[in-house]
Design brief:
single chain, 410 residues, TIM Barrel, Arc Repressor Mutant, subunit A, 2 domains, nine-stranded mixed beta sheet, 14 strands
């Protein structure tokens, strides 16, 4: 299960937002994240808000769709009473956990509720994550017919020993089978990879990348493993059972990722994400990086509207009970200060290949422009693009992105 929720103010039980808090929202796009918190087993490295069947108390997985639909109705009522003009969802993303553990009928019912309550924009991106072991033709044919148009498969690695270290239940062959099913059904496709598992060599990571490229997905995400406190993996490393990931080797693996994906026709558009074309980028992920509005449905889900964000009760049982009592499942909230909003905008936009307007940066952070020449000299920012008015990270800059943001905002 995930670590503790952030500190924050108490969230209002009616879920209402003030006019000052939602100021500017009408100019932003609107997005939905749907959290499915169930997994067959919990992987040793995982810090997400996920639960096995034995950790749910009296709640049944079969009751979960009804709870989500209750929050969808609650959100529509709260937004209407807050005087926020109705907006359709531009993207919907079912994440987890393992969304594909739920029956297709439940996922379709949730999606239908979102569409009937809010509506979707034309060509809205509708994504579900999937564990390779849970992909069947029958289930995903039903999802495709119902309006899902994109699948993100959790491949993580193409090497069995690495999957074993990560405690992933699937084998590499299952990824191939699952991918062929969803691709054949006409879904947009994405593969998720993780590099830096304890003991993983550079050649093993190359093997994983080559296996992923051979499937020819539209989109690839490659994340550096983070050892989260409180996880089984953190305990194994602390006890000496497993070796801690080597930062220099992590950097080599990232550089290899860029080399191989670029050669295969993929272009980076965010530090951990590559696609075959701009049209195949993840619209949902881009919404986060560009500071758009979203409502996160489900236990532990985070939402962001205007200048406020909030987060729900973590456990599915307490989350469901709040909704049964017809009150907000949110347990905390934060009103973003001007300084926090500035910092987050620089941090998020600078992660993308389009970067950030230098004139916008200067307006947000006086004096930041004067620091750019040294960052160019250090090989962290693209000098040619800086001349054209854009702050874009170099490959080296992507490896040191946090340091670049600190330099620009301190």
């Amino acid at each position: 299960m995930a670590g503790p929720l952030p500190d924050g103010d108490q969230a209002p039980v009616d879920g209402l937002l003030s006019l000052e808090e939602i100021k500017g929202s009408e100019a932003r796009t609107f997005h939905a994240y749907v959290h499915i918190p169930f997994c067959k087993d919990i992987c040793g490295y995982c810090d997400f808000n996920t639960y096995t069947a034995t950790q749910l108390g009296s709640l049944k997985q079969s009751d979960y769709a009804a709870s989500l639909i209750s929050e969808i109705r609650f959100s529509a009522q709260a937004l209407e009473q807050s005087k926020l003009l109705p907006r359709k969802f531009s993207t919907v993303f079912f994440g987890g956990g393992t969304p594909s553990l739920l029956p297709a009928a439940d996922l379709i019912e949730i999606l239908s509720s979102l569409e009937q309550t809010f509506g979707f924009t034309e060509n809205a991106e509708i994504t579900t994550e999937a564990n390779p072991d849970t992909v069947t033709f029958e289930k995903f044919a039903a999802l495709r017919q119902a309006g899902f148009n994109r699948v993100s498969i959790g491949m993580q690695s193409g090497v069995q020993s690495v999957l074993d270290t990560l405690e992933r239940s699937h084998n590499p062959e299952n990824v191939f089978k699952a991918f062929e099913i969803v691709k054949g059904l006409g879904f947009g496709t994405s593969l998720d990879l993780i590099f830096g598992a304890p003991g993983e060599s550079l050649e093993q990571w190359r093997e994983s990348l080559e296996a992923a490229i051979a499937l020819e997905p539209d989109h690839l995400s490659a994340y550096s493993l983070i050892v989260e406190p409180g996880t089984k993996l953190a305990r194994q490393i602390k006890s000496g059972e497993l070796a801690e990931p080597d930062e220099d080797l992590q950097a080599e693996k990232y550089e290899l990722t860029e080399q191989l994906l670029s050669a295969a026709g993929y272009t980076w558009y965010e530090i951990s994400n590559w696609s075959k074309s701009e049209s195949l980028q993840s619209d949902h992920n881009l919404a986060y990086w560009m500071g758009q509005d979203w409502w996160g449905y489900g236990p532990g889900a985070h939402s962001h509207l205007g200048s406020v964000r909030w987060w729900n009760q973590k456990h599915p049982l307490s989350y469901s009970k709040k909704l049964e009592d017809k009150i907000s499942p949110a347990v905390g909230r934060e009103l973003l200060s001007i300084d926090t909003a500035k910092l987050e905008r620089v941090m998020l936009e600078s992660r993308t290949s389009k970067g950030m307007s230098i004139s916008d940066l200067e307006q947000l952070e006086a004096g930041a422009k004067s620091r750019i020449p040294q960052l160019i000299a250090d090989g962290l920012i693209d000098g040619q693009l800086a001349i054209k008015g854009r702050l874009v990270l170099t490959l080296r800059g992507r490896l040191l992105a946090d340091a670049v943001v600190r330099e620009l905002t301190d």
